[in-house]
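Hey, can you fold this one?
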Amino acid sequence: MCFPSVVCGRCGLNGHLVPICNIVLPWECVAPMCGFQAKGKGFFYIHDASTPKQNTDRNGYIIISVIEGQASGRQLEEFFNAYINTNWKCSARSIGPNTFVMRFP
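Sure. Predicted structure:
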């Protein structure tokens, strides 16, 4: 439902009111302050809402960014397989320019 003459008091945009506002504001994406160790030194809490499958994936996958030069997924696999030096094989998959998801056994 759109009402072009109304202005939302939450986000300031035209066409809707506060009760139906679904705009995500930047300050709503900040982790809440949880506590202070010393004056001016605090920490934030980010709730981990992952599923068991995501936890399993998180334990065996990492993101690798090549920050200098160029490398292929195959070159990364060869390097890490030689570095680990076991019968287990690592695999790398490109997810962007010079960025790879690498799976470790």
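Residues 73-84 form the longest helix (12 residues). Let me know if you want another pass with a different chain boundary.
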